[in-house]
Structures are given as C-alpha cells and as structure tokens.
Design goal:
- This protein is an all-beta fold.
- The protein has three domains: 4-131, Sandwich (Immunoglobulin-like), CATH 2.60.40; 145-226, Immunoglobulin-like (Sandwich); 232-267, no CATH class.
- Helices cover 0% and strands 51% of the residues.
- The protein is built from no helices and 21 strands.
- It has a four-stranded antiparallel beta sheet, with no helix packed on it. A four-stranded antiparallel beta sheet has the order 5-4-7-8, with no helix packed on it.
- It is rod-shaped, with a radius of gyration of 35 Å.
C-alpha cells in the first residue's frame, strides 16, 4: 500500500526528466473513494535546462495536464538557470475504489523537452500504485452447512467472507420455518453455532450474516433441514424410525402411533 509516489519519464543525455508526483490527501469511507493531490513537472540537474513543448499526464485514466501548442513558453520560467524542478501543473482528483475497498491506479506522464545543447527528448513514464484499502462492510458468508440434526437441535457452520479483510466481530443467524429463514435470530463470534429449542419433525431454514467495525454485511444463501421426529431412535449413530409393537392375544402386532397435527390426529409413522 502507498500513500505517495512519483513516476519519472525517460532520462535525457543531461540527466533531466519529466515526472508526475502524487500524495494521498484523504479517504471517504461512506463514498468509497480517495482524494489524490498531484503535481506535474520537469526535473533539471545542475547543468541542464529545457524548453518544454508538447506534453500530457494522466491519473487513473483521467487527463490532468495537457500542453499541445508546440511552443516553448515554459522555458522563460527557468531562464535564470536556477536548476530547480519546474512545476507545470497541480491539482487534486477523486479516485473511486472497488466494492471491497481496494484500489490499484495508474499514473503516466509524457512530455517533450527541447534541450539547449542537444536533441529533443520525449520523456515517457508510467506506473501503478495500490492505495490503502478503505474499510467496507463484510461480504456474505458461505451458505450454512448443517450437521448433527436431532429432535430439538441443529448444528450450523459457515466460511467467513471478510470483504476488505477487516476482522469479523459478530455473526447473526436468522432461522425459522418460513422459506426466507425469518422468525428467530441468535448471535455468535465463532463461525459455527448449535441452534437449540427447535421442534421435532419440523423443517427449518437458516441464513447467516457478518458484522465488522464498519457495519453489517448481507445475509448468506439459505440452507434447510428437517429435525428428527419424536418417534425415532438412534442406532449405531444413525437415527432410525422407531417401530412400536404391541402384544395382542399373545401375538406381536404393529402399533399405529398417532400425533395431533394442526388439530387433527394423524399417523406419525406410515
């Protein structure tokens, strides 16, 4: 990451060259952009001067300096042969960042100079710089994976999507029987959570979102599962239907367990 820099053009036979310099002035978190101060000029060694003609400079693809008159007007500013950098133009420009807060931007300079004791020099230079990342909200985590489904609990896990890399401080899990996973919420600082207090034999939907020091990100995609019904037993680590039998007149027969669903008695095992 850089907060300032300079791009130099080709160096002439007397050691002089065109340049564009920049400094980071400020960053706007809400607008997701940086303000850059820039200066375009020509650098002279102690024994050289130039009459500058055609030239241009660009910051992040935007033209910030242009001289296309072909004359030698700027030479008079250095007629005293003080051999200081000759500043041609300066200003500021806003550079928008990517959605995740990062930004790599380009500067280039191309100026032709007339050398009093030598040929014309076309001084070209170009380079890229990475600006400091602007803090952004985190991205959506991965779709929650489901494990350890039991009668009243479900295990969830997900993968962090940090967005711009700021640490996630809290996850919020939204879940319920509605297909948009709304109804209840719970939080955790970890990337996994066991949801408790569920009902047996009910289909639940789950989604998760992250928060960092800037704010909250969007919810993940939704996953779902059905909790184990009450008439199940766990055998060798696997939940299986419990098949109840009763003895009638000395003969074992299949029992027909019923449960009340929405006010109606229905078979709980088919």
């Amino acid at each position: 990451m850089s907060t300032s820099g300079q791009v130099n053009g080709d160096v002439g036979s007397l050691g002089d060259f065109a340049f564009i310099a920049w400094q980071l002035a400020s960053q706007n978190v809400l607008g997701n952009y940086s303000t850059i101060n820039w200066q375009v000029g020509w650098s002279f060694p102690a024994f050289s001067c130039r009459g500058l003609r055609l030239g241009s400079a660009n910051v992040n693809g935007t033209l910030v300096y242009l001289d296309n008159d072909g004359g030698d007007g700027v030479h008079a500013f250095n007629s005293g042969h003080n051999h200081q950098p000759l500043w041609l133009a300066s200003g500021s420009i806003n550079v928008g960042h990517n959605a995740n807060g990062t930004k790599n931007f380009n500067l280039n300079v191309s100026i032709r100079g007339w050398e009093g004791s030598g040929p014309n020099l076309l001084s070209d230079g170009s380079a890229n710089f990475d600006l400091p990342t602007i803090p952004r909200n985190p991205g959506a985590p991965s779709t929650p994976t489901i494990s350890n489904v039991e009668q009243t609990t479900v295990g969830l896990a997900w993968t962090q999507n940090p967005g711009d890399g700021l640490p996630v401080t809290l996850y919020t899990i939204s879940y319920g029987t509605a297909i948009d996973a709304t109804g209840s919420t719970t939080t955790t600082a970890d990337d996994n959570k066991t949801i408790t207090g569920l009902s047996p034999g009910v289909k639940y939907y789950f989604k998760v979102k992250a928060a960092n020091s800037v704010g909250e990100g969007p919810y993940s995609s939704i996953s779902n599962t059905t909790t184990v019904a009450g008439a199940y037993v766990r055998s060798s680590g696997v939940w299986k239907k419990a098949i109840p039998y009763v003895k009638v007149a000395g003969v074992w027969k299949l029992a027909r367990p019923y449960g009340k669903i929405l006010g109606l008695w229905k078979k709980s095992i088919n």
